[in-house]
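Please study the protein below:
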Amino acid sequence: MKQILFIIFLFYVITLSSQFNEPVLIDNPENPNNAVCYSGQQSYKIIGEKVYITFIQADDDNWCINFGYSENNGNDFTYTVIETIEKNYTEPVERITPVLEVLSNGNVIIFYRDPEESSGLYKAISEDNGQTFTTELIAENVYEMPLLVNKNDNLELCYISGRFEQMSSFQHFTNVEETENADGDSFPLFFWGQDELFGPVHSNGDIWIYNMGGWPTFHEMVTTSGVFQITPGAPMDDIFLGGWQENVPPKLFEPEANLIRENGIQPFDPTKEIVYVKIDGNSYQSMYGDMELVGIDSFKVYSWFPADAQQANDIINSGYNWYEDSDHIWTNYVPIYDTLWTQGPSGTIQDQSVWVESELWIEGQVEGKQTWGCADTVYIVGDITYNWTTIGSAPDDEDNPNLFDYFGLVSEGKILIKYKHKDPFNDMVLREDNCDDIWLYGAYAAIGEGDENTHGELACHYDGIFTFEYQHPHGSTPDFIAPSPYTGNDTLYTYIDFHKNIFLPITGMPPDICDFLIHGGFPQSPYNMCGYPYESPEYLESFPNNAPTFIYPYGTDHPWYNPVWPESAEDIITERGTIHLYGSIAQRRRGYVHRSGIDPYNHPDQNEWDLDNFHYDGTHPSTGYNKDYHYDQRFKFVDLIDFPVTNEDGQNLVITRSTDGGQNFVTQLEQELESPVLGKFIASDGNSIVIALYKNSSVIQFLISEDGINFEEHEFVFEDLFFSFLKSLKIFNNEIYVLVSYYELFQSYENDIILKLNINENSYQVLETFDNNYFMSDFNISNSGEKVYVGAAYDEPQNYVDFHYTNGSDNFSEFYQWLPDFFNDETSPFTSKIAINFNESDSVYVSFLKSGSMSPCGYLYLTSGRLDSLTTKTDEDFDLPEFFISNYPNPFNPEVNISFSLP
């Protein structure tokens, strides 16, 4: 029996691959073996045995718009270069990939973009099977590839003109230049001799320019909605190399990251207080942190208490006991909290945004496009770098541009570079990475807006800023081990400052002990701050320091103001190196990245701690970072995923129509878009045309027309489904189908799902769900109305391509597996692409773009074949005897028929 099953299985494996011809490499011999990029289904058409395909291919300095033509089912191609476009390394190549249609008379029409020429949209028409083309500019200011569909030789062309300007379009963007100390009439931060900015700059408020250490230098345009506060006679042409302009209209600066809120995946539990994320390429891992009350501890305050082992030993060796000989003057009752860390979800990110409701700690190496948004404060706990850029190199380097990695980080509060922290991923090891330079790649936006109704004049302290943690350091007393004055045994002494100082006082405290209330002091050598290891000689020598002539402790840090409190001044790092930034910063008001330590607003009194009013006792050494800021020029051309925008009227949807073979196009609809569109698709069944605009993770806007002239608008809201990608749109017999990649809230995995939509009732039917093994997938409907899903996956030791399709119903009961040789473990799951099309007899034509990196370019293969019960058998190459196995165990449908052919 086992032998029979083995023979059947062997026949099954051998003959499954025989249903498809050997794949053909699409490669123009004028640019052999150079990378190719294409537009999936919109790139190729099949009429009979003729195959028409368009793609873009690189040479040394240019992109070549190519057309390929085959008269024998794609076995051989002739190629034509339609146009050569100069490479713009900051322009994503997938925005240039051409689209194609073929008319009934054999004419070929191709649309492509040239980003260097006013971002123009061009058409190319051939009347001789692509041997020659005539080209014409038809629109300007088009920043994405259009959609094209042929309805009975009437061409519908849909494109988006203009673009939303994202905050990342500016290297430096503020709503106001005043700092968070504006309530105290603190002077605004100014640009001075050490500032050199290489990208555009804008502020909705005045900009201050000072000649201190020289004048600042701006290499690109600087605009302000106010005026420049600058000394009359300043050398403006030497300061503003790229030009300057005052009193321009203010830019939009919304306090909410609505696009990420609406579109981002949400894998994290919003009830957790902290989400700590480590990014590793296109994947991440996380930990949850929750502050837990350990208990309310009591600490007796004594008139004299040792601060280290030497002081304790000196008293014990002299025959005394501070517990007995000094005065017990107070008891502190202090709630003690600890952070409980637990495992959070892990997952992958593929050109997506992620929304975090909790406080976010983040670091890592980024691959691909990803934007993280947070409703709370964001702490950068380590370097954030790019996978495809060497640390210290620029991602927009013309000689070695990074075409793949783009990172955005948005906080509806503040963004802070963390001081030190204990790493829950590594046994709570104390890390101080950020105290010796930090490398940051990407765009950072702190957009929070303080609530004046809640905070009054202090609301400015709650505005979004990009800044750093622990700006006002002072020493505090660490734990130590010393003998017990009672037993002589080694004893661990903790929370020393709670035994020396009164904390959280209550009304009615005796006047003679008020000065034991925790406080600071004038800076003392050798660390130029108060706090341990410094203590006044008068206090040290006062033992037992009994009433009524108390000597008070000199001063210390406020408990837990230092995130790793208590910490000796000896271990505190004040000057923390340089912020090496390759990207942009947007912030509601200007944040400090370096402090003098003597700011009178934050240090009005050398002895007062008042955190509620942002007073931080005694002055201290300067602290913070130097700046090494570089703009990422790619942000002028590449939109980050769901990053906040600065304009409300950035884009228009345009639908045009041609009834004369593409010679002339007449605009049928022009509509202003309220927000960026995440994706767009077009489809026609010969009767109706449908356009889908993927707006966010639960809304698709449909435009439907029966005549190609008048369009009805329908907004479809998925109330119980969240999806991260709209992958395909189809219409058949006036019924609309979509393939989406969807996820469950607070889960990190995604699945593909095919839905049949009822537009009028805003309802849908789930036809089939496919698990997340398929990292490449596509969906199409054959001419006979069968729905076909194709998914590619890698499963050691064999790669495979699976076809799931219907047979006379909406049930995906048919299954076929193809085992191609060219598809291997070097294929990137995030940039490779698969697409499926049909000819009139429903033979299957599968294209496969194989990319081995995060580049959207790679090697393009095309193969033809047939699927049993689908393809009309008119080609002898596909007419093979058949063998059937019923009820083959298919994980997606237990009632499935598997058929394959024996040679």
